[in-house]
Amino acid sequence: MTRRQLSELIDSLIPAMEVQREQVLRTRRGHERLVAPGAGAKAKLTSADRVLVTVLHLRKLATMDLLGQLFDTTAMTISRAVKDVRPLLEAHGVHLPASTARFRTREDVARFLDPDKSKIKPTC
Question: Over the stretch 23-59, which tens digit does the pLDDT of each residue have?
Fold first, then answer.
């Protein structure tokens, strides 16, 4: 998936994510909101982060613990984001194949992204 495709995906999902969030909050409160949108606690992840985390998880690139570390949150927050965004991806007909790359630590990611390929040791 290119950056442009990811950006377009995020742009197409954000309105649906906002509607989904309002429905969940309305159900939890039992009535319409009494204060303006934006009041209250701020989300741990932005809408774009939630889509990106879900894409990375569905591609099986990293564990939820590692994604939590990379996004400075917990694995539980990552799990909730994936649970919320996955149905929206499916509704938009987005199916993501698993990647062959797997990362378990931040160092694995850094080694993969390092432009000096001589530092990467081949595995036997």
Answer: 877 887 888 777 777 666 777 899 999 999 999 999 9
The most distant pair of C-alpha atoms in the chain lies apart, rounded to whole Å, by 61
Contact 90, 82 (CB under 8 A): no
- State both tokens at 42: 């701020």
Question: Which helix (H) or strand (E) segment is 124 a member of?
Answer: none
End-to-end Cα spacing for the chain = 29
Angle made by CA atoms 52, 87, 50, in degrees to the nearest 5: 20
> What are the residue ranges spanned by the domains of the chain?
3-30+43-100
- Helix, strand, coil shares of the chain, percent, nearest 5, are 60, 0, 40
**Token pair listed for 50:** 């939630």
